[in-house]
Specification:
single chain, about 400 residues, alpha/beta, Rossmann fold, 2 domains, seven-stranded mixed beta sheet, four-stranded mixed beta sheet, 13 strands
Length: about 400
């Protein structure tokens, strides 16, 4: 019954050539050409679950070892974006759920969500991130550069867009392990504050600042943007990298309102975040296992929010392929440490993260994900650079 249903389902697929080895040892080819990859079904998978939510069904089956693949995992996921199924507009390994997309994320819930993902342990992230501990899209001036070089270039590319001057104050919302505020203090002479809800990140950032003797120029606090906005502090420049994806759709206006309260008139803010083409919920597998409470906003959704706070759009740049390459580096480094992670966290954990990193890279290459740096000012600012030349000096 299950095999017949799955065979009929995959028989309707067009746009991709692949084979499936079923649990009874039989192998079937689908498509019209030579199979580009093989799917191995080690046990029965519910056709109902697969039809209802492919990403969740396949993701869980892979984590549980019920399904395997022969071929490059990233390229296999890329291929699924080409698949069309009769009666469906689009079928891919990373689709969506239509639940709880517009829920408001409380401070307690957001802290819990952040802890789930970012407090796995600094020793975990240290093994596959670069030396800066940057867990966000790098910037490759050349594809030959190492990930470490590209992450330094991302920091400088970002900070140059803020047009910093010595003595200015800079706020980094969601500062991670502190790489940007440290770079800003060292290279640009500003006074930088980073905030995070991750205790693991907070501890490392505090230690790094102390080791470098930057206590008078840089600091980090364990707090939320909404809480900070209720204080009397104001900043010349505000940056946020890879954080707004965690606030939830209902809180996007609150994020902008908080930036409005925290930014001085004429100040500049840069928002660096993953974006989607249209407004749609995050797929359920990612929400359940990787980023609970997450929401990927569309570009137009973010731009639409700017005028409500009197913000003026200055610049928007897509770094889509830069993130694909960043994820390829991460996936490679993660795989080099897979045996260690399996002993510490278990094989299911390793398969989950392997799928997450490779599927994410595929989504930026062939799917609907993008990433943008959006720069805006609070009201008019006529003292800014009129060209982009300063970014490439």
């Amino acid at each position: 019954m299950e095999k017949t249903a799955l065979h009929n389902f995959f028989g309707k697929v067009s746009g991709c050539d692949f084979s499936i080895e079923y649990w009874d040892g039989t192998c079937e080819n689908y498509g019209e050409g030579k199979p580009a990859f093989k799917i191995i079904l080690r046990d029965k998978i519910s056709a109902v679950k697969l039809l209802r939510d492919p990403s969740l069904a396949i993701g869980e089956a892979y984590m549980d070892g019920l399904i395997d693949f022969e071929g490059n995992l990233q390229q296999i996921v890329e291929a699924t974006y080409k698949i069309n199924v009769i009666g469906n507009e689009r079928f891919s390994g990373l689709r969506k759920s239509l639940t709880r997309v517009n829920r408001s994320t409380s401070l307690a819930n957001q802290r819990e969500d952040v802890t789930y993902h970012y407090d796995l342990g600094n020793d975990f992230y240290e093994l596959w991130l670069d030396e800066t501990m940057s867990y966000s899209c790098a910037y490759f001036r050349s594809t030959e550069y190492s990930l470490y070089q590209a992450q330094l270039q991302k920091l400088d590319h970002t900070l140059k867009k803020l047009q910093l001057s010595p003595g200015e104050t800079l706020l980094d919302i969601g500062c991670g392990w502190g790489a940007l505020i440290i770079r800003a203090a060292q290279q640009y002479g500003v006074k930088a504050l980073g905030i995070t809800l991750s205790e693991e990140q907070y501890a490392v950032a505090k230690r790094r600042i102390a080791e470098l003797g930057l206590e008078s120029q840089a600091d980090v606090r364990l707090t939320d943007y909404r809480t900070l906005a209720e204080s009397d502090g104001r900043f010349d420049k505000i940056v946020s990298i890879g954080m707004v994806e965690h606030v939830g759709r209902a809180n996007l206006p609150k994020y902008m309102q908080s930036v409005d309260k925290l930014l001085i008139p004429g100040g500049i803010s840069l928002l660096h975040c993953i974006t989607s083409q249209v407004e749609e919920p995050c797929n359920r597998w990612i929400s359940k296992y990787i980023f609970p409470g997450g929401y990927i906003p569309s570009v137009r959704e973010l731009i639409w929010l700017l005028p409500a706070s009197g913000f003026r759009l200055l610049d928007a740049e897509s770094l889509r392929l830069h993130y694909a390459k960043t994820l390829e580096h991460w996936a490679h480094s993660f795989e080099n440490n897979a045996d260690h992670f399996a002993k510490k966290y278990g094989e299911r954990f390793v398969r989950m993260w392997r799928l997450y990193l490779n599927a994410s890279a595929a989504s930026f290459v062939a799917g609907g994900l993008d990433i943008h740096q959006i720069v805006f000012s609070k009201g008019l600012n006529n003292e800014l650079q009129m060209t982009r030349e300063h970014l490439y000096r």
